Records
---
Amino acid sequence: MVKLSDINENNYEACSGLMCTQEQCEFTNSPVWSLLQAAYASFKDKSKLYCISDDNRVVGMIRLDFSVYDDYYMFTNLIIDKSYQCKGIATQAVRLALDIFREEKKFEVVRIHVAMKNTHAIHLYKKVGFVSTNKFSEKGLLIMEYSL
Ligand SMILES: CC(C)(COP(=O)(O)OP(=O)(O)OC[C@H]1O[C@@H](n2cnc3c(N)ncnc32)[C@H](O)[C@@H]1OP(=O)(O)O)[C@@H](O)C(=O)NCCC(=O)NCCS
């Protein structure tokens, strides 16, 4: 069963070792960078990094931004370790992330930024219900939205 749980002393080392393929590295931040970023005060209470596990094995991470932006939620830094990709885990993890946002009841929209050439990620986001806004971030990433 896929679960999202807090990063703690039992799983942070496994999280730091998560790897995507060489070609995928440009699509997300490194897990070590995500861990460092989450540890710093500027993000405290605004966003939270979750460990993605499947049957108690650490398989990925995802960061949920609760109040970094004024009128929408966002998730970022999604990674599934290359040994566990293409098993539907990211699909389940994104659905769980949407459930967490839904329970917050603060905003009605979730946004993500994705590279146009990250076709697998775009396919996955469309499958769970995200739509393209046809707008791009400052970094040239496609902005997709989901209505909670
Ligand atoms: C994008 C990523 C998170 C997908 O994780 P995943 O667990 O493999 O995704 P899923 O198994 O849930 O797959 C979702 C869909 O995408 C397809 N897909 C995902 N990766 C694929 C691949 N490498 N080749 C072919 N299809 C792929 C699956 O077939 C599935 O489609 P389907 O349900 O219609 O069959 C993972 O490849 C990854 O960590 N990439 C590097 C980091 C990254 O790009 N993060 C996203 C930044 S926006």
---
Amino acid sequence: MHDAQLRMLSTYNVVFASVRGCAQRSALLLILFLLAHVAIGKADAVSALERARSLDMPAATATVNAEFEHADFWETNGHTIREAWLELDQANLALADIVDPSLLESIEAARDNPTLANEENVLSSFIETGPPGKGLAYTSRLLTSEGIRALRSELDKATSSGIPLRRPNAMNRYGCIIDKDVDGAVSLSSLTSFVEDLIDGIARPVGRALFNHTVGTEDDKEHFAHTIRYNAEGDMELKEHRDASVVTLNINLNLPEESYDGSSLYLLDEEDIGSDGTGTRHFLEFEPGALLIHRGSVRHAVLPISSGSRQNLIIWLFGEDGQVRVAPYNEKDRLTVEQRWGKEMENNDHDDDKWKPEL
Ligand SMILES: [Fe+2]
């Protein structure tokens, strides 16, 4: 073979080898690409619900970093948890299907036509409770039996979902937070919408009407909603405390057929508390479906439950950045009946960037 032929063959071999090398590299790259694609596909195939369920949630009793217990865990996984709630079926919890119709009718009349007479008609459903004559707390029927069942069904869906639930606060470790903006809260839209409708439609106007001397338009802009479950396996009692709110709603979510012993709720008149720190306890009748609405500054507590279980929905109203007004307004600065009930009173704090109590 001539040198030229040898060189040509050699060139062919180099080119062929090069082409073959390219082909091999291309094939290898293609295989790697496909493997990576399959791996990514598998990752995508794991739903947010599955990922949320597989999280190693901090124990309800864990107390690391005091009030900021395990904040890193909730912030890191907040997005996954929020996505997971979207994968569950949602019921429709309209106020008209949940709230006592006669109360709702009177409230709608006051909202449509905010007069003192219509306001008085609503307030006639609210009976003063706690320290008599002080105007600190009131009760009313709020939920129908069917309404309680519908709410409980959604709450049971949330608590049995396997999605990690952040505890509401250091005194309440076995309830859950209901809020679409808080990492680790239940953000089922059925429940968050119900809470927002309840606040806009009932809590703010009634709170402004009952506590007109301390609640102005800036004082009830934000909210914090959570449940409490009292039973032998979880929270058994609530020590005496005040709430970080201008107005608190406490709704009894027990079904009429659910019984329990103990767990009595009482309020204390601040002015009646002696130097030893004790005062007269005013115990309340608190029927299933009832609403207790009180000023957050009123001291209150729940005695230990001795059998059965009890479940409540709590809503705090407060001002921007957690401001809690205590001082009364001068007569001339208090809200008018139109400001208490008019449609424009809906502050609608349902944004993504609102302040939340320390959890
Ligand atoms: Fe409280």
